[in-house]
Amino acid sequence: MAELLEINDLTVELSVRGGHRLVLDRVSLDLAPGEALGLVGESGSGKSTMARAVVRGLPDGARVRGNLRFKGADISAMSPKQLRAFRSQSVATIGQNPRASMNPVRRIGDYATEALRTNFKVPLAEALRRAAVVLGDIGINAPERVLRQYPHQLSGGMLQRVVIAAALLVEPDLIIADEPTTALDVTTQSEVMAILQSMQAERGMAMLFITHDLDLAAAVCDRTAVLYAGQIIEDQASSQLQSHPQHPYTSGLVSARPRVDVGIERLVTIPGRPLAAYERGAGCTFAPRCEYATDICRENMPPVLVTTSGRVACWHAEELGTLLHNHEGESIGS
Amino acid sequence: MSAQTLPRAGRLHLRPRLHLALGIDGTIAAAVLVVLALVAILASVLAPVNPLTTDLLNLNGSTSASHLLGTDSNGRDLVARLMYGARTALMAPFLVVLLATTFGVVFSLLAAWSRGWVDSLISRLLDIVFAFPGLLLAILAVAVFGKGLMAATIALAISYTPYIGRIVRGGALRALAQPYIAAVRSNGFNGLHITIRHVLPNLAPLVLSQASVLFGYAMIDLAAISFLGLGVQEPTPDWGAMIASGTSGILAGYPQEALYAGALIVLTVACVNLLADRIGDQAGMN
Q1: Where would I find the beta strands (DSSP E) of chain A?
Q2: B188 and A85: CB-CB below 8 Å?
Q3: Among A118, A17, A7, CA closest to A52
Q4: Alpha-carbon gap, residue A274 to A287, rounded angstroms
Q5: Nearest to A53 by CA among A32, A34, A33, A39
Q6: Per-residue burial over B96-108, b = 16 or more CB atoms within 10 Å of its CB, e = otherwise
Q7: Which chain B residues touch A105 with a CB distance below 8 Å?
Q8: Please, where in chain A does CATH 3.40.50.300 lie?
Q9: Rounded mean pLDDT of A159-184?
Q10: Full-model pTM
C-alpha cells in the first residue's frame, strides 16, 4: 500500500541559546492511509517536535535534515502556497490545550467554520449548518447555541470537542493529535478519546496520536512507536507491544504501569533518568539504564532490526525477545 | 403555551455583539457627543437664522429674544454660527483620526507581521514622523499648500499616525505571540487572514481608545490652526476661528463669542477623553 506519510531519517536540531541541540535523530516512520499510529515517549523525547516537523511548524532557527513526504510530495520543498494548502486541507492538528488554540474574542462558530469559509469558500450559513451537524455527531447538545458562545463559556472538554469537530469539518487525510487529552480530567478524557477514535475510524482518516500514555495508545492505535531520546527504539502493532515488547525500555515501561488488578508493594521503575538526545554517547541511548547492556551496547549504536511484528533498535533483541515477554509474565504472577 | 417549555432552537447566525459597559459618566459623555454630532449634521434645519446674515443694528449684542446667545462683532447670530461651526469643528478632527488610524493600523500590522527589515523601516519612519510636533507640520503644510483645512487635516493625520502605529505594533506583537495564532498558522491560513480576522479584533478596544484620545488632540490643534487664521477662513463659521475673532471682543467687554466657542471645544474634548478612558478600561489599558 502506498504510504500517506513517509518520514525518512528525520533529524531535527533546535536552536537553544546560540547553539543547536539534537532533538530528533534519524527517525523513520511510515503511516498508511486510514492507519492510527501511536507515538509514545517521555517528556523531552521529541514527540511534539516530530508533530511540528510534519507541518513545518518548528520554531525559527531549527535545522532539519532527512526526508518528509506526504502522498509522495516532499514537504520540505513545498512553496508557501503549497504548504498552506497542505496545512489547511490535508492535515489537521489537535493540540494539548484547546483554550490556548482559540482566539478568545471570536465565537465558537467563527472558529469551527473558519477553515470551511476561508479555504473552501463555503458560505457562512452552510458552514454553520455543517458545523452544527458535526458538533451534534460528537455529542454536543444544542450545537446552535454553542456556536454562538465564546470559548470562555465552555469547559475544556467541550472546547476540545469543538477543536476535534473543526478538524473533522475539513475532512483531512491526516490528523495529528498531540496529547489531546492532557489538559482534561480523566472522565472527559475517555469521552474525548472515544469520539476521536470513532470519528477517525468512521471517516478513514489517518492519525498520528502522540501521548505518554502507553495504554491509551494501545487502545486507540493500530500501531505504536516508542520514542526514546529522539530515536524510535521500537515500532510494532499495539497489541504486540504490550504483550511482547522487544526493547528493554518498552518492557520497562510496560512493567512500570500501575495495575488495578494486582496489588504490589512498589511500582517497578527504570533506574536512572531519561536522557535527552543531545546528551547521548556513542552507543545505545538506553544503555546506561539497561540491565541487559553489554560492551557492544555502550560502544556502538544498535542497528534497526526488522522483526516479524515490527522494528526494534537493540543489539540483543533476538536473545531478549522471549525474556522480556517472560519478565512481563512474572510481574503479573507474583 | 405547553407545560413543557423547550428551549427555543436558536437560529444559525453570528450576530456581532459589542460588549461595552461605559458606566454613567461614559454614557453621559457619549450622549453629549451624539447630540453635538446631530446638531452639526442638522445645522441647516435647526439653526434659527443664516449664520452669515448680519444684523447691523445689533453688533456685539447680548442675549435677546431674536438672538438667544447674542451676536458677534458683525452682528451675526451666535447660535447659528456655533451650530454651523460644529460641522468643521467635529468633521475635521474626525477625518484626522480616521486617516491617522487607517495609516497607523495598516503600517503597524504590516510591520508586526513581517518583522525583519520591513518592521525596522516602518518603525524608524514612524519615529521620524513622531519627532515633528503636529501643529508645526500642519503650519508647514499650510505654508506650502496654502490656507485652508485640507492641508492642515492631512498634515495632522500624518503626524498622528505614529501615536496609533506604535500602540498597534506593540499590541499586534503581543497578539501574534499567542498560541492560537500558532494554531491558525499551522492550519494553513495566510497572513492577511490572520492579521485581519485574529489580530485586529483583539486590538479593536486599544485602537478605539487611542483614536478617541487623538480626536481631542486633533480638535485642539485644528482650533489652534483656525485661531492663527490658517485654517477655516472667514466668513465660514468654525469654533476655533470664532475664538480668534472674538478675542478682541473680550477686551471690549463682549466675551460671548470666544467664550461660547471655547466652552464647546472644552466640553467636546472633555467628553471625548472621558469616553476614551472608559473604552480604555474595557481594553484593560489603564
Answers
A1: 5-16, 19-31, 36-41, 63-70, 73-74, 91-94, 174-178, 206-211, 223-228, 231-237, 304-306, 310-313
A2: yes
A3: A7
A4: 11
A5: A39
A6: bbebbbebbbebb
A7: 201-202
A8: 5-226
A9: 89
A10: 0.76
At a CB cut-off of 8 Å and minimum separation 6, what does B255 contact?
Answer: B246, B249
- B178 vs B194: CA distance, rounded Å: 12
- Is the per-residue pLDDT at B284 higher than 70? no
Give chain B's domains with CATH numbers: 23-46+73-283 (1.10.3720.10)
Interface test with B, best of A55, A75, A82, A105 (most B CBs within 10 A): A105
**Beta-carbon contacts of residue A123 (< 8 Å; ≥ 6 apart):** A117
- The grid coordinates of residue A226 equal 516508542
The complex's ipTM? 0.73
Q: How confident is the model at residue A111, as a pLDDT?
A: 92
C-alpha cell at A309: 511484528
Query: Is B180–A103 a contact, with Cβ atoms under 8 angstroms apart?
Result: yes
Q: What is the band of B18 on the pLDDT scale with cuts at 50, 70, 90? A: low
Nearest to A93 among B11, B186, B189 (CB): B186
A5-226 topology per CATH = Rossmann fold (3.40.50)
Question: Quick one: how far is CA B224 from the chain centroid?
Answer: 15
Q: Do B197 and A95 touch (CB under 8 A)?
A: no
Which of B186, B193, B198 has its CB closest to that of A103?
B198
Placement of cell 480616521 in the chain: B98
Beta-carbon neighbour count of residue A32 at 10 Å?
15
Q: Which residues on neighbouring strands pair with residue A6, listed in sequence order?
A: A30, A69
Contact criterion met (CB < 8 Å) for B180 and A101: yes
CB-CB contact of A228 with A285 (8 Å): yes
Confidence of residue A297 (pLDDT cuts 50, 70, 90): confident
pLDDT surpassing 60 at residue B3: no
**What pLDDT does residue B71 have?**
85
pLDDT digits 0-9 by tens, B233-265: 888 899 988 998 888 888 888 888 899 999 999
